[in-house]
Amino acid sequence: MGLRVIQYRNQSGAKVTRLPSRNRAEDRHPDCGHSKLLGHLLLLCMMLLFFPEDRAQAEEHVDSEAGETIRQLLQKTCFDCHNDDLAEGRLNLQQLNWKLYDQRLRQRWILAYDRIAAGEMPPDRKDLSQADRALLLKKLSQSLQAADAAQVALHGRGPLRRLTRDEFEQNLRDMLALPHLDIRDLLPQDREQQHCNKVAEVLDMSRIQLDAYLEAADQALRQAVASGMQPRTREQHHLPATRMFQTAETFGGREAMFYAKDSQMVPLSGGDLARMRKENRHDPEMELAIFRSASWPYYGYPDVFKAREAGAYRIRFSARAVRQLRDFSLRPAWDSIPMNFRARKQSGADVSGDVRVTGETFDIQPEVGIYETTILLKQNETFEYSLLGLPVPRAINPRNAPLYYDFPPMPEGGHPGVAFQWLEITGPLDSETWPPASHQRLFGELPMRAAEKGTLPIELISTQPAEDAKRLLRRFIQRAERVPTSEDMIQIYERLVTDELEAGTPLAEALLSGYTAFLCSAPFLYLPEPRAGTPQREYAVAARLSHFLGNTRPDDELKRLAEQGQLLSAEILTQQTRRLLLSDSTEKFITNLTDYWLSLKDIRRDEPDSRLYPEYRFDDYLIESMAAETRAFITAMFEENLPVTVLVDADFAFVNDRLARHYGLQPVSGSQMRKVTLPAESHYGGLLTQAAILKVTANGTTTSPVIRGAWIMERVMGNPPPPPPPSVPAVEPDIRGATTIREQLAQHTRDPVCAACHARFDPVGFALEDFDIMGAFRTRYRSLAKGEKVTGIDRAGHDYTYFIAGPTDSRGQLRNGQTFQNIRELKQLLLAEPRQLARNLVQQLIVYATGTPVRFSDRPVVEAILDECGPNGYRTRDLLESVVRSSIFLGREQPPSTSLQTD
Q1: CA-based nearest residue to 371, from 329, 331, 336
Q2: What is the pTM of this model?
């Protein structure tokens, strides 16, 4: 146990805690002292990830007689193709060992079982009689169940799961009362598996990662300490319209932005504005009118404000939505204009840096109104006005002339925009009570004074520092722990803190060392697997439930139920699940689930190709609305307990003003998502046809039935295709318009092996060819060379030319021979498999909730969940609640049944 942690002062005087290098001479000194505990953290974390393989016990569950029966049946039908010479599909059954305790070999046998159960092996069903197939599946299932269940009984369903960096940050936010804590990016990015970022197998821990966790925890704790003896002084700025923008005009000229009075443009020059500001003579009747989105190039922010310190700032402003007419006069807008603020450093337009949305989104109304929000700024940042969905000027670079930016042609009725009358900034906003709640979480009511030494702004006043340190440390551990901490472990942390005190470290800093050690210990960084019969099982279930539905630690109610031994009651588990689903924390559950399961984290991955789709240029508002729709849909799916079939088809959609236009629906007002009933003839409804899904399955230039079909079959239907052979090139649609994607795929699938695989997913993808790269319905393709020429000027003022090519063809035939003509008919075919839809959702929830994919011995439990929820139509909240009440989630009481449904 020779590892330890080095603590030292950096250039700014702050104490830094890091793991030593084995090769640094300065790190190899004999005095371990109080750093010894922190040095053990890495070893403790690593030890938790490994389980000794008890092969002798596992082998007891391997039925050699069943293995011989299986081998004889396979020899009659499968060895001709899967032998030493051929090994089709890279599977040699002739040499596949029957050592089922070996997880790698067991996975190969599970693959064989699944192929046989699906009727895919042998390819000719007549090669294996129905009786032999039933016997083979029964023997395989019994053997695999027994071997897998034995390993689970010995070692649990999987390794302990480390917190993701999002969970670590949210745990600290809630525990330290720092709702806006931002330490996530100090930690290494988590790896993915099974379309999830919570799989224990890939959430590893290394020396470098632990070093990052130590640094993140230390920073979080220091932010929780009071910044001084009093709250920071709030500054207040009241800015008239002529102080709200740093220049007299912006890119795009007068049409993009101007100052106005009595609804008529006032032609202020830069000199006029400078004199007005120097003399502090501002006309309160003036307005700042903006008619463009805050995309690059842009830098529209107040000329006199920069955040003196990091923190929250209150913004109040007066504004109205307007239309700009050709004579530069203003009229009330016909509808609201959405806007928010973007934080950024002061700079030129071509230096964007860290530009991010902060605060809420407003719908500015045509009547003058006062709006208020709170934005988060880093030190020396300012903010710009981000009007959503408006045009962006185009760059024009004539030969031998300077570059300039033109504004798009005026639409009928005038350019929409927002006219601002004034703006107030107040901040930084510290807690009304002092010291703040975060400080009290660390040090209770212990008095403080301005620091005379150390690196914190305050120091604690104590006549009995050792006793106060032990009291506060125990208080902190009790608040932070997920399971009760043993007295022996508490005393180790106490020794760490008292050793620091004896070395002359101020009390507050000594406590932070102990707190950091606990926050980076295995009991805090890892979630235990609930095990039946263990005294800490209910605490493990509470932690699993809270991290499942909120990405954070159990709240007081969950902890109380665990302490009282009541949490495992089916009735109470259901009540708590519903309570958490209706709480504010469910937003984190929905965001994380949709980011990974449905790939919403990739929503901005591919920019729309402006050559083929000029109408989507610089339309961030549309992209944001797409993601918001899918999140609102999944939220409603669970909250309203909708049947799982809504994933395929629904008679409603969630839209705002931008999405309603995009889908060709009746207009709605405002940026907020609302549920609308779809017309009977609509092509939309359900997850398959949502714009976000159709965008993340396209590449920004073209659509591919291969990609979309494979994505839908894997993510929604739960029938993932096998990986393509490494030698087979991808099919790239022809954007020149010479051939159709159907013609290209027909050539690609002439090989029977390719054809058999593509038959799984291509038909579904063809049904989605009626939707373009952003999910808008279409009947014709576009190309850059052939077809009917289309010209115009896009929303950013750019000239465009593309061609309308051949018609889309959404016909298809599924593997079972069923045919369809369009997406509506395909949906009806897919709706006939509600149990498979439910099975896929349950499997996704299990891996998300437990950090371990569904094992073979879990399958009977999954089928029992489906049996329970089937009579009520496989409703989604019912499925989720059944997962929470299952032995998979709670820890098994006994080995599962060996019966297995394979429909």
Answers
A1: 336
A2: 0.88
